[in-house]
Amino acid sequence: MEGGAPGALIQFVPFILIFAIFYFLMIAPMRKRQKALQSMVANLKKGDAVITQGGLYGEVSGLKDDSVILKLGENVKVRVARSAIAGMQGQEDQS
Questions:
Q1: What is the pLDDT of residues 45-92, one digit of tens each?
Q2: Domain encompassing residue 9
Q3: Which residue among 31, 48, 50, 84 is least packed, with the fewest CB closer than 10 Å?
Q4: Which CATH number covers residue 10?
Q5: The 3-state secondary structure of 25-44, one letter per residue
């Protein structure tokens, strides 16, 4: 019976290695990208050119606590949630 315990532990080593590889290749970069996006959204200012998750390109014309007023064109302004901002224009292809 004593010989069975180390064998059972060795069987879990491949699963642990797969999880470690998955973490460093998938989860860690995703968390880093998400923190950068949150920082960018928190630091938005009037005049920034952004793109929304829906694909709308606009310029920030106003900021509120949980929303952003985007100018999409002449006399066209929309209010979107800050969480709908996907990135700055020109930086959307860096993901």
A1: 999 999 999 999 999 999 998 999 999 999 999 999 999 999 998 775
A2: 4-94
A3: 31
A4: 2.30.30
A5: HHHHHHHHHHHHHHHHHHCC
Q: How many independent structural domains does the chain possess?
A: 1
Q: Report whether 60 contacts 70 (CB < 8 A).
A: yes
Q: How far is CA 37 from the centre of its chain?
A: 5
CB 61 within 8 A of CB 71: yes
Ranges assigned E (strand) in the chain: 49-52, 57-63, 67-73, 76-81, 85-88
User: Strand pairing of 85-88 and 76-81?
Assistant: unpaired
Chain centre to alpha carbon of residue 29? 10
Structure tokens at 83: 């969480």
| Contact yes or no for 29/41 (Cβ under 8 A) | no
